[in-house]
Amino acid sequence: MGMNYLHRVLCRSALWERxxxxxxxxxxxxxxxxxxxxxxIGPGYGADVRALRARAATLTGVEIDPELAAGLRSRHxxxxxxxxxxxxxxxxxxxxxxxVVCFTMLHHVSSPSRQDELFAEALxxxxxxxxxxxxxxxxxxxxxxxxxxxxxxxVPPETITERLARIGFTDIxxxxxxxxFRFRARRPGS
Length: 190
Hints:
By secondary structure, the protein is an alpha/beta fold. Helix content is 37%, strand content 25%. The protein contains 7 helices and 7 strands. The protein has helices at 5-11, 14-29, 49-53, 66-76, 112-125, 141-146, 157-167; strands spanning 37-41, 58-63, 81-84, 97-103, 126-137, 170-176, 180-186. A 7-stranded mixed sheet has the order 3-2-1-4-5-7-6, sandwiched between helices. Strand 1 (37-41), helix 3 (49-53) and strand 2 (58-63) form a beta-alpha-beta unit. It is globular, with a radius of gyration of 15 Å.
């Protein structure tokens, strides 16, 4: 899941972390309770860790890139349990988390079928009644230009409801704004 040089510089910047903490995470998670145990798929450089720790007692991150996983361990220590692995095949037990989240990373998953595998894994590791939520960018020219040379497979927001429902999620909501969309879904059960 490659990212070009400029994209990597942006994603590890203080500016991106501030944007994520003050805008992206609050908008994507507005009104949601993450419960006691949250999982972030694809934390990358860790821009969301501070905002997520304020919402959940424990936080785990599954990161596919070994170097980024090592950096997360070094930077966040006890605040984040880091598991190096693929979000589409997580080395985690079923029913472990009260919430699963992902932010601005779904487009880096190599194909719609791999994205669906990631959605299925999110369902598998969620407890009954748990929430899956996140956000991603809309397929627009500025978004595409930022991703030249990257793995870039945008998720059309008009397809995500059907895709999540097919996997088994319920109570699905999708909300678009100018350059991004958020989604929320529940694993059935109490």
